[in-house]
Structures are given as structure tokens and as C-alpha cells.
Design brief:
Elements (H helix, E strand, L loop, with lengths): L3 H10 L5 H4 L1 H11 L2 H13 L7 H5 L4 H27 L5 H13 L5
Helix pairs in contact: 3-6, 3-7, 6-7
Amino acid sequence: MNSRRDTEIQLHDIPSNGSALRNWSQTLLKILNELSDDDLKIMKYDLKNNEEYRIPVSSIERTDNRVDLADLMLKRWGKRQSVLNIRDLMKKIPHNDDVMINLFTPVLEEIGETW
């Protein structure tokens, strides 16, 4: 007999249309947590100094932690654009390892993009 928790886990593991993008905020936090402190500094530097990303320097400087930074990026860019911008930032750092690629792959496939 399955417990409710077992059922929830099984249902969670079943892919559904739109689930990767819908869960992007959690994936983004996982991505940011994969970064070393130095990598995070590099990313923030790029955010401050690249007009393509259009996030005010003062907003970036007010982010004290990864959760605040993720929230700022999602509010500023929205889900789809944040996927693309973060992917590009990871390539610049560079942070192209298998863990990072595996985190990105489902959402990139869902929006018709590649690594």
C-alpha cells in the first residue's frame, strides 16, 4: 500500500507539459547554489557591467544572498528571458559542467532552446 507521500513523489516525477518552466524559480536557486562565491562575484560583475542585462547596479548591490538575486532576476527578466540570460552567464563564467547542463536541459528543451 502506497502512502500519500509515496504517491506525491511518484506524481511529481511524472513529466507534464510546462513543468520545467513552471519550476524554473527552484531550478534557478539550484543553479545559483552550484556557484562558488567567486563565480557569484563574476556573475554579479557581468550583471553590473553589461547593458544587455539591464539591471541597475544599485539593485544588484542590494542583493545579500542568492535568493534575493534570483528574485531580482525573475522580476526583471521574467522566466523565459532569465533562462536565456542565466545560461549565457554560466557560459561566460565559465560553468559548463554536467551538473549545470543537466539543470538547464529540461527548461531549455521546453522553450525550444539548447545549451
